[in-house]
Design goal:
This protein is an alpha/beta fold. It contains eight helices and eight strands, in the order βαβαβαβαββαβαβαα. Helix 6 packs parallel to helix 8. It binds D-xylitol-5-phosphate and zinc ion.
């Protein structure tokens, strides 16, 4: 299975974000991962829809927007209009996961469900027909640069659920992905890998080499 790399711009230089997005795009990124944090659902504050909109002209790659905000519902339209292609939400961010996913689909976007390390995969069971991407968090959300939690059985469990649908649903891993942990999650069935620290380390001259290494090439 070919693996896609979604660099998290959380680890980019925020003072030159457009340039950083162009650089990872040119270096072989498949998606651009945008971590949205509200200082409430997670203990950090990052990017809003205006920043997503400003970045949109800098890449044609799908914008993979990871919402770590609660509530998420009031902001889905803003992130869709800003140019997100995939909008991923956490089930804990609102009372009606099914309705939130319906809203994302009605906005014409791909819908993702993100599972915190403690969140069971059963939350997927009755919404799978609305899901285009399942994100398995391998750190607790909030910060880049944390150590990988080896939730390999969970990744395999999600892979089985995806395969049972017969649909083309992305299985994305987020947190502590580097060339070593990449191998473990690829073998467990992941096909999209988010990588912040491992992509951006060493500066722009290293991005292509870093992305290749994470991809396992
Ligand atoms: C964590 C974010 C991740 C994070 C990954 O809350 O969702 O996308 O930026 O960073 P690394 O790859 O450094 O673990
Ligand atoms: Zn993320």
């Amino acid at each position: 299975m070919s693996v896609k790399i979604s660099p998290s711009i959380l680890s980019a230089d925020f003072a030159k974000l457009g340039e950083e997005v162009r650089a990872v795009d040119a270096a072989g990124a498949d998606y651009i991962h945008i971590d949205v944090m509200d200082g409430h659902f997670v203990p950090n504050i990052t990017i809003g829809p205006d920043v997503v909109k400003a970045l949109r002209p800098h890449s044609d790659k799908p914008f993979d927007t990871h919402l770590m905000i609660a509530p998420a519902d009031p902001y889905l339209e803003a992130f869709a209009n800003a140019g997100s292609d995939i909008i991923t939400i956490h089930p804990e961010s609102g009372p009606h996961l099914h309705r939130s996913l319906q809203t994302i689909k009605a906005l014409g976007k791909k819908a993702g469900v993100s599972l915190n390390p403690h969140t069971g995969t059963d939350v997927l069971d009755h919404v799978m027909d609305l899901v285009d991407l399942v994100l398995v968090m391998t750190v607790n959300p909030g910060f880049g640069g944390q150590s990988f939690l080896p939730l390999i059985d969970k990744v395999k469990e999600v892979r089985r659920k995806i395969d049972a649908t017969g649909r083309d649903i992305d299985l994305e891993i987020d947190g502590g992905v580097n060339p070593e942990t990449s191998k473990l999650v690829r073998e467990a069935g992941a096909n999209v890998l988010v990588a912040g620290t491992a992509t951006f380390k060493g500066g722009p001259d290293k991005y292509a080499e870093n992305i290749k290494a994470i991809r396992g090439e």
